[in-house]
UniProtKB/TrEMBL annotation:
Residue ranges of domain Transketolase-like pyrimidine-binding in the record: 5-180
Presence of keyword Flavoprotein: no
Listed name of the protein: Alpha-ketoacid dehydrogenase subunit beta
Domain of life assignment: Bacteria
Length: 325
């Protein structure tokens, strides 16, 4: 059976399933209980599972993550919400010096199954510190898994896989896609958490993206098809680890690659992909790997964000430049 649901609802249903399946799963965060979260992703969960399982916390991100680490050490599986992307930085120390390091520090004896949920990215007309894309900061840190779904089905299954993981997972939720609906097969068998997926077959060029930019790349592929160009769209799904094998397979077929993400291009995840694929596919590439993303500047006020974010024309321009070689 497949139900059509919004991405936010899919995460809600996934969290509900996890709470039902394992009494050690807890949800914590600012306003996640009575309010149901600012995006209503946790709506109804505290009512159904109680205040000891779905916990409204003080406004203290470092305390939220630090408490989750202590709970994980005692056998729980906390799922913590950082209300907005730009609010995660007070917890950055806890995440990169404790959460990411404890497994190695204990020579493998200690596991920290903590999921840190972060609504991220722009496109909602928000104020400062509400539209950032800090995934590359966390991907640089070993010991963390970084994933981002682009659709409701992946949101449902990837959340459950993240909760079941014995490693800490940073779960970036594309907030501009929260209301996009798609079918979710709740009885299906999911694929591997960190496996990329081809969401559109093509032969002329590969567009690689994750999270909010996958839908844009599909729109770019539709526009390019009107000009007789056949683009492949690859949903990376995971930023760390990255599925380089799937990227390589696609690039060996299309011989061109454009990487798209909202985060700034400078030192972004696309830079690592470009470097690694250039090494792996040097004799297959017919053009340099190109990147499209945000600018190396603070995220702008809402009235300017459409100029900052990658859009159809900017990605099509990269496609044209690649195909011109």
């Amino acid at each position: 059976m497949a139900d059509k649901m919004a991405l936010a609802k899919a995460i809600n249903e996934s969290l509900r399933h996890a709470l039902e399946a394992d009494p050690k799963v807890l949800i914590m965060g600012e306003d996640v209980g009575k309010l149901g979260g600012v995006f209503r992703v946790t709506d109804g969960l505290q009512k159904d599972f109680g205040e000891s399982r779905v916990i409204d916390t003080p406004l203290a991100e470092s305390g939220i993550v630090g408490t989750a680490i202590g709970l994980a050490l005692r056998g729980y599986r906390p799922v913590v919400e950082i209300q907005f992307d730009g609010f995660v930085f007070p917890a950055y120390d806890q995440i990169v010096t404790q959460l990411a390091k404890m497994h190695a520090r204990s020579l493998g004896k200690v596991k920290l199954p903590v999921v840190v949920r972060i609504p991220y990215g722009g496109g909602i007309g928000a104020v400062e510190h509400h539209s950032e894309s800090p995934e590359a900061l966390f991907a640089h840190v070993s010991g963390l898994k970084i994933v981002s779904p682009s659709n409701s089905s992946d949101a449902y299954w990837m959340m459950q896989q993240a909760i079941q993981s014995d490693d800490p997972v940073i779960f970036f939720e594309p907030k501009r896609r929260y209301w996009d609906k798609a079918e979710v097969a709740t009885e299906a068998i999911p694929g591997p958490l960190h496996k990329a997926q081809v969401v559109r077959e093509g032969t002329d060029l590969t567009l690689a993206a994750y999270g909010p930019m996958v839908k844009l790349c599909q729109e770019v592929a539709d526009a390019a098809a009107e000009e007789g160009r056949n683009l492949e769209v690859l949903d990376l799904r995971s930023v760390s680890p990255l599925d380089f094998d799937s990227i390589q397979t696609s690039v060996e077929k299309t011989r061109r690659l454009v990487v798209v993400h909202e985060a700034p291009v400078f030192f972004g995840s696309g830079a690592e992909i470009a470097a690694r694929i250039t090494e792996r596919c040097f004799y297959h590439l017919e053009a340099p790997v190109l990147r499209v993303g945000g600018y190396h500047a603070p995220y702008p006020p809402a009235r300017l964000e459409e100029e900052y974010l990658p859009n159809l024309d900017r990605v099509l321009d990269a496609v044209d430049r690649s195909l011109a070689y």
